[in-house]
Amino acid sequence: MKTRLSLLFLLILPRLLWAQLGGEVRAAVDSTQVLIGAQLNYTLQVKTDSLAQISFPDPLAVAPFEVLESFPIDTLQAQQHYLFTKKYALIQFDSGRYYIPPQRIMIDGFAKMTDSIKVEVNSVVVDTLKQKMYDIKPQIQLDKNYRNLLARLLWVLLFLGLLIGGLWAYFSAKRKRALRKAALPPFERAIEALKALENSHPKAQEEYKDYYSKLTEIVRRYLEEEAKIDALESTSSQLLNKLLLLKDAGKIPLEKETLKNLKEVLETADLVKFARAVPETGTAPRDREWVEAIVVETKEVLPEPTPEELQAQEEYRLLMLKKKRKQQLVYALSGLGTLLVLALLKN
After folding, report:
1. Which has the minimum average pLDDT: 212-221, 248-257, 269-278?
2. Phi, psi dihedral angles at 86 (to 5 degrees)
3. What are the residue ranges spanned by the domains of the chain?
């Protein structure tokens, strides 16, 4: 056993001796005196055989200097040895006397230390006696350049023009739609809304909520406009009680089956909107058909309006339309005024 250990030691000993004695390291700088902010080239060199594994320090510890750049390793073969060179660019922005600390370089797993290097960083000396001095130059009065201001103003005017045109087109189309809808009598308007709702096929709870909100609004608005019942602000039970009273008084003689269907539609709508219920399949289309039947029957049993009532309805419609136009004009002018103020502040 001792013989084997001795042989192994004899085999490893030359390698250890070379790593400890054969590998040579050195550090150098291109100058030991530099000015503040000037680049200092720092070089690490290793001289060893071709079988050695070299590891330069990474990162390089050269505080208080800063590393500007690390260059690739340069390898040079010289007879039986190799010369490995690693260059760094350093910099320092404070004057004084500094030492670049020793660097550890690994050769085949063994550390070799370089020497420290003293570097003096000198400040730039300015001789105010020899340096020619000049008087402060007077201010130069420049002509005002209105080209940029004019260009900005043109861009602002173009933007405002496009904005005004877009708002005008939007409100014009909206006004036309409002006029077309307002021109329709309540019955035709309700039937048109129910036909549009016929194409809806709700599946999720939120879709059912939106569906029944529109459905109940159609029948409530029709009853309020056509039958003069305060339906939009009434609860489901209050609306049914009002219809029952009008039926008993003979003013709106609806069938019992019609009132029963309306009650079931309103109860289903309340469950969907407030209890987040989901009706059974086929309930939504059936309820829409029931509401359409309620609207048709109400139209049939209601007496024809008198000329005075028709004139009052037309005056009310025109008043609401005028009020809406006034609101649209106020919104448009407010938006334009805000944009104009912002544009002037920017300039």
Report:
1. 248-257
2. -125, 125
3. 22-122, 184-303
Rounded CA separation 28/35 (Å): 18
Q: How many CB atoms lie within 10 A of CB 308?
A: 8
Pairing of strands 66-70, 40-48: unpaired
The edge-to-edge listing of strands for the beta sheet with 104-107 is 54-55, 104-107, 110-113
Superfamily for the 22-122 domain: Immunoglobulins (2.60.40.10)
Tokens of 136: 């402060």
Cα angle 167, 171, 172 (rounded to 5 degrees) comes to 110
Answer left, alpha or beta for residue 252, where phi above 0 means left and psi between -120 and 50 means alpha. beta
Decide which of 172 and 64 is more confident.
64
* pLDDT (tens digit per residue) in 9-57: 444 444 444 444 557 899 999 999 999 989 999 999 998 876 678 889 8
Whether residue 75 is predicted with pLDDT greater than 70 in this model: the reply is yes
Model-level pTM? Answer: 0.41
